[in-house]
Specification:
The structure is a homodimer.
Chain A (H helix, E strand, L loop, with lengths): L8 E5 L4 H13 L2 E8 L6 H12 L4 E5 L3 H4 L27 H15 L4 E3 L15 H15 L4 E3 L7 H10 L24 H13 L10
Parallel strand pairs in A: 1-2, 1-4, 2-3, 4-5
Helix pairs in contact in A: 1-6, 6-7
Chain lengths: 224, 224
């Protein structure tokens, strides 16, 4: 178990969405080799996992998909339960799409996987700026879990969050700079799980607003 | 989601072993109501989960069993892989039974479950004294994950570790004080997964030593 620490490699937590695809391009520039991990947590729409697979394939990366069947068993939220409506958050109340503890589980499982391969770097697309009321997207949480992971596994994990303090528009501009805009055509964002995207749900609206502010056209097909 | 915090209730991470059974009795004394959660992570021996079920039933508690099928998919260790031999740790090397990140996943999932029920208290039988080289049994780790869980879910989690600084003998004495010794007959400890227990594997030896030092007879049947 005396592992070689491969500092020039990284594991990317990959959802197939706009943010994690931007992180993936960022990581491919920063690290010599990257690995992709996705989570099947019973999300409403398999479109997300499908997008992750499609994009990983285009980039000639293998995507490790981890089954997490317990989420729908112990939590109630609009992402894993079709009977619950998608609602944006209000003051003091997270949106109905919030899955409690999701990022904490994802990061922990990704870290376990990464350590087996001797990889200390984890990259995630969480963002405090537009965090929509999700507490586990904030920098304070990331710093805290990084420390906890190191203690739990005695391994020098480093969590990279290239989007943490960017607005959605900044993140679109970053992707342009990385030469990754065409890839965004294959990403999945829409909470309704449709393709072309609905353009009306909170996730689509946030995405469209970002492109608009950046003055760049979203390559994703929309219904309207 | 504005939850009522039920400070007089607790969720116990329950393996069906000696330590977590002692914690269960401890928690039943301390809290008005307790809930039990166990994890099916592909452990070699279902004897553990069976013991958890038997004891929960005797105490008239329902046991929530959470499937975590990914462990055997991403890690190599003697607990989830029968081809790997059980070996004790040596200096600087954890034992072959160490499952990287296990307690971190267990505590996170238990916290998600507890929050849904409005329960802030989590009880776990981790112990620094006899920690056998498992970094995620130490107090520094528990303090760190407690903080991380609070940040991740904005909920006032409190992790209770009644055995943290006890020796195995202390823990036997505690169980005697709690009137729980007869329950230990139904627990499972043996790494070989047999009943009567083998009495020879590292887990059996540690258990027997504790009873011997406490001057109390282990009610568990042994092969020799």
């Amino acid at each position: 178990m005396a592992l070689n620490v491969k500092n020039n490699q990284a594991v990317i937590l990959y959802s197939g969405g706009q943010d994690s695809t931007t992180c993936l391009k960022w990581a491919m520039k920063k690290f010599k080799q990257v690995r992709v991990i996705s989570f099947d947590y019973g999300q409403r729409h398999k479109a997300e996992l499908k997008a992750a697979e499609t994009i990983a394939k285009r980039l000639r990366l293998r995507n490790k998909v981890i089954p997490l069947p317990f989420f729908s068993q112990i939590t109630k939220n609009a992402l894993t339960d079709k009977k619950i409506k998608v609602k944006t958050g209000t003051k003091g109340k997270p949106p109905s799409t919030f899955v409690d503890g999701r990022n904490m589980v994802f990061l922990t499982v990704a870290a376990i996987y990464a350590k087996q391969l001797g990889i200390p770097n984890l990259v995630t697309g969480v963002c405090q700026t537009d965090y929509s009321g999700y507490p586990d997207c904030r920098d304070a949480f990331i710093k805290s879990i990084e420390k906890t992971l190191r203690l739990a596994m005695e391994f020098p994990f480093k969590i990279h969050t290239p989007l943490m303090f960017l607005t959605k528009a900044d993140s679109v501009r970053l992707m342009k700079k990385l030469g990754g805009l065409p890839l965004l055509k294959y990403t999945h964002t829409c909470y309704e799980g449709v393709r072309p995207a609905c353009g009306k749900c909170p996730a689509c609206k946030l995405r469209l607003k970002g492109f608009e502010e950046a003055g760049i056209k979203d390559p994703l097909p929309y219904a309207q």
